[in-house]
Design a protein that fits this description.
The protein is mainly α. It contains three helices and no strands.
Length: 114
Amino acid sequence: MAATIPTVEEVQEQYLAAVRKGQEVALDAIKNVVETVQSVTSKIPTVNVPLADKLPTPEAIVANAFDFAGQLLAEQRKFTEEALKATAALRPGTGEQAAEPAKAASAKGEKKAA
């Protein structure tokens, strides 16, 4: 019986499924801790912290962080795609096709410098 090798997509899906399962377990634990803490803290008087109303909400902080991460990831993708284009001439099977635009761009640069 031959062993089957999973595709990249299958491995990625397995990884994401494991992450989701881990997140479910963590959320269940967090909810249990919150219930336990609430049962104790309901008996403690609240404290007003000066300027606390001026701080961003936890939701706003999370949204901002994930927006930034999305922008960063998009920039990294653009960079990586451009790096792949720039190095295409060095990869097997793409040398001749990719070398022509590079030569043309190089020739244009030499003409401008002259």
